[in-house]
UniProtKB/TrEMBL annotation:
Family: Belongs to the ligand-gated ion channel (TC 1.A.9) family.
Residues forming coiled coils: none
Catalytic activity: Na(+)(in) = Na(+)(out); Ca(2+)(in) = Ca(2+)(out); K(+)(in) = K(+)(out)
Domain of life: Eukaryota
Keywords carried by this UniProt record: Cell membrane, Disulfide bond, Glycoprotein, Ion channel, Ion transport, Ligand-gated ion channel, Membrane, Postsynaptic cell membrane, Receptor, Signal, Synapse, Transmembrane, Transmembrane helix, Transport
Protein name in the entry: 5-hydroxytryptamine (serotonin) receptor 3B
Residue ranges of every copy of the Neurotransmitter-gated ion-channel transmembrane domain listed in the record: 236-328
Keyword presence, Protein biosynthesis: no
Sequence intervals crossing the membrane: 230-254, 261-278, 290-317, 406-425
Membrane topology, record value: Multi-pass membrane protein
Entry GO MF terms: extracellular ligand-gated monoatomic ion channel activity; transmembrane signaling receptor activity
Localization (cell): Postsynaptic cell membrane
One GO term describing the cellular component: postsynaptic membrane
Amino acid sequence: AVLLHSSHLAGCVPEKPKRSALNQLTRTLLRKYDCGVRPVHNWTNPTTVYIDLILQSVLDVDGKTQSITTSIWYRQIWTDEFLVWDPEEFDGVSEISLSSDAIWIPDVILSEFVDEGKSPPIPYVYVNSSGSVKNYRPMQVVLACSLEMYAFPFDKQNCSLTFRSWLHSVKEIDLALWRSAEAIANDKREFMNDGEWELLSIPSHYWQFHQDDTDYAHIQFTVLIRRRPLLYVVGLLIPSIFLMLVDVISFYLPLNSGTRIVFKISILLGYTVFRVNLTDEMPATAVRTPLIGVFFVVCMALLMLSLIKSILVVKLLHHSEKEVRQMSVSACLLDKYGSAEYELEPSLEGDLLSLNELQDTPSGLEWLHRELVSLRLALSQEDSESLGQADWLALCSKLDCFLFRLYLLVLALYAGTLMMLWASWSFA
């Protein structure tokens, strides 16, 4: 009876479940694995790490800190000789994922690395039965880059991503490209091409750097990008050009109307406010001022020059005749306006003599005659003054026209030079 009871209890106890093939394989591979040892049976054989890179987007280009923030898909592939198994022994399992902290990972880093950014952690790697380890992960990295902002907004940037082993020489860790250099250079399928930057190509090359009697392997990817200038042309350049055209048109306001100077001051004030509001749109550099910054400064200088020129001409226009005679600008001015003593006609001289003679004994008719003669003299003097003012206005108008043409020449030369520079950069 005891034996029957014991057999009955044994039949009620559930069987201990077998470990899955995946669990058994993981325990078998990692039981005696040392993640601090380079995974080769012969230590003289180097471990070749294959690298692949796909650029996804350019997030930020900071000229002040000389850095660029990019989002990339990065792949490392190498062979781990300690992670090899026969799939038939483990239910046909030919590929598993292992914790990246449990196995050996090559110390391949970016030389231009500044900050890791917001990269999602990927704690696993894939390993197949032949020992090939695949480490795939997205990365958002901030890289140091020598940025050239002088041609903004028609600039092109050339930034490098250099991968190397930090400690191991080429005898221990060698690097190679997983795909051909041509395939990597022309791969734009994942790049977000709707943003501010356009990807031109990503050329790459391999070389060895000799230091302390040791060679170190390097692979450099050069990211060539070009800025799309339409946003800045519409928001920065075109409004400035419109304000400069309005300033040029203001020269056609009448010289003696008194509104030209007020109008030019309003344009200068508006341009100053426009420039201050767009300060954040300009790239900040500590080494070299962008050409567009020079453009804004010269435009403001031209507006001030236009205002000073108008003030000078208006000041000359409102000089009194006495000041005009004393200016001695040229012999022609003196010859033309020096005779402002108002020479009298012979008939007026006779009237003036008769007026002097009649001042002693005025009678009714004589008083009337004297008043008529005085009125005629006053009108004659006023006509002479009006004629002199008209001549002076004509001379000031000619000076204004000359300065206006000179201003247009300077403006045209400056605009032509800028257009040639920006056109050469834009289509290069």
